[in-house]
Amino acid sequence: MKRHLFDEDHELFREVATEFNSRELAPNYAAWDAAHMMPRSMWTAAGEQGLLGLAVPEEFGGMGMADYRFRTVLDEEFAKSNHLAVALAFHLHDDMVLPHLLAYGSDELKTAWLPGMVSGEKVTSIAMTEPGAGSDLRGIRTKAVRDGDDWRITGQKTFIGNGISGDGALVLARTDGGTGRGARDSFSLFMVEKTEGYNTGSQLDKMGLKASDTAELFFDNVLVTGANLVGEVGRGLEYAAGQLPQGRLAIAVASSAVARAIYTETVQYTKDRNAFGERIIDFQNSRFELADILTEVEVTEAYVDNAIRAFNEGTLSATDAARAKLWASERVKSITDRCLQLHGGYGYILEYPVAQAFLASRLLTIFGGTNEIMRDVIGREIAG
Ligand SMILES: Cc1cc2nc3c(=O)[nH]c(=O)nc-3n(C[C@H](O)[C@H](O)[C@H](O)COP(=O)(O)OP(=O)(O)OC[C@H]3O[C@@H](n4cnc5c(N)ncnc54)[C@H](O)[C@@H]3O)c2cc1C
């Protein structure tokens, strides 16, 4: 089915993304995968190409391209070329950290961070999850304590993408002095630059998306000025909730893009390979599987495209976005699994895109809020 999401500007942007992909990523991606790290030069090259900080207004060095279709184009191009770790790294920077700074950051904070986030000279992480608290963020124990006009942050975070390679993190910390499970107004957000007492742990060895670094962070009495507080004290969870539509939409978009890319690759593979004197695609089972998969891909695209339009109009609610994330991430999990099966033994070999996509997309039902949490918020809305 023909999609009606994009116009000429998006297709021009796609050409830029495709060129960046083949010039900067394709020759180096395997080495970054082996090193579990991407170099800063990848970020600055992306910045030069105008691929970072898309929504940053011109006054802070950006192009003010808040239209989410541009981010969608990028995700689609990374999915087609199977550079999924780059998609994850950009997602954390552009979909998770940036919206909080844009919506709640002071001009001082924006001036300090946004131009560098656009140029790739400042790479950011979002640091919410802790060893003892992931789904239930009210259980976090990292604390920020006032020190005159400044703050001292102490605690530990885990699973932090761009944690080693980045320059700083948007940190959720407890600011009411309490222990045990906090109230909704017990937490605040801080933009924390790497400095004394801000230590990174070693790489977490992920099953996929290896080129994107993921690590624990340790804060040992880290001094941050009052200017690093994002918005107001006690509103950290409220702010995080306010940005849930974009975070969840982004995962839905990535899921849909990977599903389409792996479907397309699998059609080609099953046309190229033979068994019993026939192409794999000529077996009825293969055609039935691909028929189901294509239908699921198109239904998912239509649903996610609708969510993108709603987001651009400002009408996508957090539960709308939860449904899009739930649907699309479950579909890509199933689709990559079935496409892998159609590749036979080669599907199990990491050199093949389907094996990498299978491992990468396994994350999508887990992070950014697990799908059990998505079902919970959707179910609670239904129950009223
Ligand atoms: C590769 C990777 C990258 C990540 N990147 C980041 C990052 O950059 N920044 C960051 O802050 N975090 C990041 N995360 C963390 C991620 O968001 C959490 O792993 C996720 O939110 C789940 O938290 P948890 O792992 O503590 O699981 P838990 O909360 O311990 O959940 C365990 C299981 O219990 C289920 N469960 C929990 N509560 C309920 C409930 N109420 N009802 C039903 N079931 C429930 C969950 O769905 C899950 O199946 C990343 C994780 C991974 C794996």
Q: What would your notes on this structure say?
A:
With 384 residues, this protein is of the alpha+beta class. It has 3 domains: 8-123, Orthogonal Bundle (Butyryl-Coa Dehydrogenase, subunit A, domain 1); 125-234, Butyryl-CoA Dehydrogenase, subunit A, domain 2, CATH 2.40.110.10; 243-383, Butyryl-CoA Dehydrogenase, subunit A, domain 3 (Up-down Bundle). It has 12 helices and 10 strands. The protein has a 4-stranded mixed β-sheet with strand order 1-4-5-8, with helices on one face. A 4-stranded antiparallel β-sheet has the order 2-3-7-6, covered by helices on one side. A hairpin with a 2-residue loop joins strand 2 (143-147) and strand 3. Helix 4 packs parallel to helix 8, helix 5 (84-104) packs antiparallel against helix 6 (107-119) and helix 5 (84-104) packs antiparallel against helix 8 (244-272). The longest helix has 30 residues, at 284-313. The mean pLDDT is 97. The site of flavin-adenine dinucleotide has 22 residues, from strand 1, strand 3 and helix 12.
